[in-house]
């Protein structure tokens, strides 16, 4: 594609050495830059792409999107922020693929992965093809396997390339997790959303956003992008619900769901068992029974979110309910990996997420037996949530095993100390500390009795652990099966 075509909607300050050359691809990593690429000089948390422009030039870059003049004899498009313009050039290069896809974005602190999977199932049961992009990677349909995407929402060139691939495969719809980072960094710029779903907003990523207000403002971008004729699905029970409702543009149809407050779609008479959650779904005053194979109150909320999105997308009520009832748990989301004791693996890595999972697990814990929680907190991330998660685990569990999550560059023992600051108990029969996660899980063999319920929280579907100097293979599900089988 010609350079002029790629930058026709780009807000640039200056063009240097301009030549309308042919561009073969978009890159922002000098190591993977190929001949004919437009190289984007991105400024990240730890590096500045401008410093790697010469290397990219040597590797074949023929033009540059930059924030300052480079000492390179090649076309340079100088912009205010490459971070906020990369999506414009990427979407133009791939010819705006989302325009021909029904794109539904799901945002919120918790529940995004499950909700996108439920939406996919609903849409495919309605006879249309639906792809997913999110934490687990991307997949072209419910029958496809996952392809690694590295981020919940990929950087713009990868995202637009993936959407183009889906367009070429004649996919009808895409259910996409949209992270706050992706919204704030404009990774989804150039995406045309038909609908947006809000699950909840609780503390997470404050190492990046600093305040909850900034976190909300990032999430709100998805809804502000909606055009007349689109739909917005909002969790009426969340304390930020009204703020989201208030920023939805005129002409966008708003649908609400909830359990505690008045909403378009609600649930009542909720009952939990080892087999799943049962409830009466109230749809505009009409009642019908729903039997989920998934468990926990958070699963009811996720089901309501997906059900409401399905209705908003014009899918029949019966199709939506049948799809929800036939869906089993998503990988690493309240996933049962052993029956006696009952061992549950979950991705919960925020205070709210941990609280929800432990409350759900408590519902399944027989009288006279113990609820055991094993968890840690990630390094190089929001440290203020660590004591809060320690407090939640202490208050809701009978036994707590504090260990490592992905410590990254931090000392695991210091992360654990932050967690322990929120735990009041010093009873060594209730609180165990073991920095090595594999050893900690093996300890459960002696700690857990047959009727107990064990929750391994924090890593969920992840099959790796990020240490200070390396990343190793590690899967909570594998480790639990080794211990209890």
Describe this structure in words.
This protein has 485 residues and is an alpha/beta fold. The protein folds into three domains: 3-93, 3-Layer(aba) Sandwich (Udp-n-acetylmuramoylalanyl-d-glutamate--2,6- Diaminopimelate Ligase, Chain: A, domain 1); 97-326, UDP-N-acetylmuramoyl-L-alanine:D-glutamate ligase, CATH 3.40.1190; 335-484, Alpha-Beta Complex (Protein-Tyrosine Phosphatase, Chain A), CATH 3.90.190. 33% of the residues lie in helices and 22% in strands. It has 16 helices and 23 strands. The protein has helices at 3-6, 53-58, 82-93, 112-125, 156-168, 180-184, 206-209, 212-224, 241-247, 297-312, 317-326, 351-363, 385-396, 412-420, 437-447, 476-484; strands spanning 12-16, 25-27, 37-40, 63-66, 76-79, 102-107, 130-134, 137-139, 173-177, 195-198, 231-235, 253-258, 265-273, 276-283, 286-291, 335-338, 342-346, 371-375, 399-402, 431-433, 453-457, 464-466, 471-473. It has a ten-stranded mixed sheet, sandwiched between helices. It has a six-stranded mixed sheet with strand order 16-17-21-18-19-20, with helices on both faces. Strands 1-5-4-3-2 form a five-stranded mixed sheet. β19 (399-402), α14 and β20 (431-433) form a beta-alpha-beta unit. α10 packs antiparallel against α11, α13 (385-396) crosses α14 (412-420) and α15 runs parallel beside α16. It is globular, with a radius of gyration of 24 Å. The protein starts with a helix and ends with a helix. The model has no long low-confidence stretch (mean pLDDT 93).
């Amino acid at each position: 594609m010609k350079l002029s075509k790629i930058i026709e909607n780009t807000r640039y300050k200056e063009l240097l050495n301009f030549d309308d050359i042919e561009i073969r691809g978009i890159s922002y990593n000098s190591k993977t830059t190929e001949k004919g690429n437009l190289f984007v000089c991105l400024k990240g948390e730890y590096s500045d792409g401008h410093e790697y422009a010469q290397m990219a030039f040597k590797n074949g870059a023929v033009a540059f999107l930059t924030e300052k003049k480079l000492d390179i004899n090649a076309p340079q498009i100088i912009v205010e922020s490459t971070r906020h313009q990369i999506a414009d050039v990427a979407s133009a290069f791939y010819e705006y693929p989302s325009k021909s896809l029904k794109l539904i974005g799901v945002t919120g602190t918790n529940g995004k992965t499950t909700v996108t999977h439920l939406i996919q199932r609903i849409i495919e049961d309605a006879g249309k093809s639906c792809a997913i992009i999110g934490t687990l990677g991307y997949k072209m349909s419910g029958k496809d396997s996952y392809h690694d995407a590295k981020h919940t929402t990929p950087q713009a060139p990868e995202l637009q390339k993936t959407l183009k691939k889906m367009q070429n495969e004649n996919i009808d719809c895409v259910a996409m997790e949209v992270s706050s980072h992706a919204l704030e960094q404009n990774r989804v710029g150039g995406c045309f959303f038909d609908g947006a779903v809000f699950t909840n907003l609780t503390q997470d990523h404050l190492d990046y956003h600093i305040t909850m207000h900034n976190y909300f403002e990032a999430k709100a971008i998805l809804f502000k992008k909606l055009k007349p004729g689109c739909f917005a699905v909002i969790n009426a029970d969340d304390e930020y619900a009204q703020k989201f409702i208030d920023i939805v543009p005129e002409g966008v149809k708003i649908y609400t769901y909830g359990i505690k407050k008045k909403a378009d779609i609600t649930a009542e008479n909720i009952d939990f068992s080892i087999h799943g959650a049962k409830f009466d779904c109230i749809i505009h005053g009409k009642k019908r029974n729903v039997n989920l194979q998934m468990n926990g109150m958070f699963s009811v909320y996720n089901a309501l979110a997906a059900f409401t999105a399905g209705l908003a997308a014009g899918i029949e009520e019966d199709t939506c309910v049948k799809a929800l009832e036939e869906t089993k748990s998503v990988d690493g989301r309240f996933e049962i990996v052993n029956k006696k004791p009952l061992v549950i693996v979950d991705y919960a890595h925020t205070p709210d997420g941990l609280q929800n999972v432990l409350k759900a697990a408590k519902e399944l814990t027989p009288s006279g037996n113990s609820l055991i929680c094993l968890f840690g907190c990630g390094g190089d991330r929001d440290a203020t949530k660590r004591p809060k998660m320690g407090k939640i685990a202490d208050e809701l569990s009978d036994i707590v095993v504090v260990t490592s999550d992905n410590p990254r560059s931090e000392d695991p023992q210091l992360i654990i100390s932050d967690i322990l600051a929120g735990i009041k108990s010093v009873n060594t029969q209730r609180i165990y500390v073991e920095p090595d996660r594999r050893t900690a899980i093996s300890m459960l063999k002696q700690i857990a009795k047959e009727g107990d319920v064990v929750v391994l929280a924090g890593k969920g579907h992840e099959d790796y652990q990020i240490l200070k100097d390396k990343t190793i293979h590690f899967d909570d599900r594998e480790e639990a099966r080794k211990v209890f089988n």
